[in-house]
Structure formats: structure tokens, C-alpha cells
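User: Second chain of the day. Same drill as before.
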Amino acid sequence: MEDAPPSSPEPTLRIDGSRLFAHWLEQERVSLAFTTYQASKIFFIGLKPDGGMAVFERTFDRCMGIARWEKTLWLAARFQLWRFADVLDPGQLHDGHDALYVPMTGHTTGDVDIHDIAILPDGRPVFVVTLFNCVATVGVNESFVPLWKPPFISRLVAEDRCHINGLALDEGRPRYVTMVSRSDIVEGWREHRVGGGVVMDMWNNEVVCTGLSMPHSPRVHQGKLWLLNAGTGEVGFVDFARQQFEPVAFCPGFLRGLSLVGDYAVAGMSRARENRSFNGLPFNDRLARERIAPRCGLQVVDLKSGAATHSLAIEGFVDELYDVVTLPGIVRPMALGFRTREIHHVIKVGAMEALG
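Assistant: Same format as last time:
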């Protein structure tokens, strides 16, 4: 009898915080959630009772953008949007976790390559539909309802012409978007990855920042518009007077995903792939000069000094992140998924309502 072929080794994953990373979570009274479409995982990072770092993960197919509003999370997956609700009451714990996010509602969009998500004050999600070059919301009987498209996009068609990817709210309304180029032909953005990126103001259809290289993740915070200039590996803000990007810090990973809390930014870093989307970027040249390899994880940046104060390093089967969100006031979050029976038995009953 022939020997059985050797079994494939189990995939490994190691997540380590820098020396004071857990202390920073405690100091800022936040936990974190981040997504990886490459591994189809959402991770929650919090603290154990002994002060050590707690890591929790669930599987959702090709998860991308994630957004928080009060006790709600919205998550973009391959062909669906999921609304999660934290079902715990104040002070309640579930297996030692003080937030339990349950996927309550799923909206089927089809595989339209949704990137960033934001949540309006009424709880509705707005999101970037990258394949169709627009910003949209959910419909009742529609995959999505377009709200805005760049003025140079001649029609809504599934061609990913400009690679619109990032979305920021201002005063509770969708306002700023990032895109890799102003192309109006199928995948034309690929020819303009270096220096062709822009930020547009949806309120007046004007370009407010130019000269970017694969910009991502615009966020309004403390009166400034922050974003990631991924092609150069920099976190910074928009100088509206000069329509230019002002870098604050360099991070040694391809940047996607940005969340801001107090005087800090949390940026997602990926180990860039060897393909036509990442080759030839200034970011790669800088890493080569510094003789370091790109990293995967989270980088905490002090917005006042530009110092990279804390980090979360990821080694193993996860190489690429997409989005990150901070969860204020939550110490140790978790979520339910569909791969175990636990979701069968977590039930939240609403208050009795009168008929008629």
C-alpha cells in the first residue's frame, strides 16, 4: 500500500502588539476592528482582564469596508452588506466580552466591489461602489441606489474606470471621496497610479487635492481632512488652499484603512503584492532605500508630532488589510458569524409594542 500524501500544514497567524500598544488601548479607552479581504476575516482587538491583548476573529467572505455608528457596525462582504448590532446592555458581559456584535441584517448588492462605508445619522449606510464608479446607498428592491458619481464619469457601467475607493462624511453628510485617477475608460486608472490620484468634494463637484498616488481612506477629524497617500506610504491631511497633500508620517506598509481617535491615527498596513497595481510606486523605492520589507499590521501615529508611537504586527497567512475602525468605550469586543451554532442561541427580545 502506498503511503498517504503528507497533509498540508495548518495556516499560522501571529499578532503581536508593540510594548505599549495594550497600554495605549487602555489609555484611549478604545478597542479596534479591522478587515482583511485577502483572508476573508474581521478581527477585533481589545484587552483581557489582566491587561494583555485580546484577539477575536470571524469569517466573512472578502470583507472590505467597515464603519461604526453608536452600537452598530456595517461591513462590506463579497456580494452583501451586513449590519451588526451590539446586543449587550450597559454593564452586561458575554463570555467576558463587553460588546457582542450580531449580524442582524444582510443586504445583497452583488459583487460590485464595495470599498469604504460610512453611516448617516439616521443609521443608513452610504458606500463606494468601485466597480460602477459611484457612491450609493441601499435600496428596498435594488442592489444599490446611486447617490453621486464623478462629473467626468459619463455613465454608470461595471468598468471600474477611476477606482473611486474612499469616502468621508462631513457634518453627517457624504462629502469627500478619493480616487486613483480621473479616467472615463475601463480600468484607465491603472495608467495613473503615480500622481494621478485626487480628492473630490461631492457637494460642489470640485477637486480639492491633486498629485496623489493611490489615495485611500479620507476622514474628517478635528477640522482637517486626513487621508492615506498609499503610493508614497504616508499619512497626512489636505491643505485646501494649495490643493496639496501634507504628509505627517511614513508607515512601512501599503496603506489602506484609517481611523482617528483623539490625537492619534490608526492606519492599516499591507505587504504589497507583486502585481500591476503595486509595482512602480514611490513607496517601494523608499522601502528599498531603507532596506526594509513592507509590513502588515496597524500603525498608531501621533497626529501632533508625526511619531509612529505604537504598532500591531501581523505575521502568517494574513498579508493585506483593507479597513480599520475604533470602538470607543469598548474594552473587549466580539462578534457572531455563521460557521458555528452560537448564533442560533443568542436572542435579543425587544420591548412589547401595542397592536394598532
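The longest helix spans residues 282-290.

User: Great, on to the next one.
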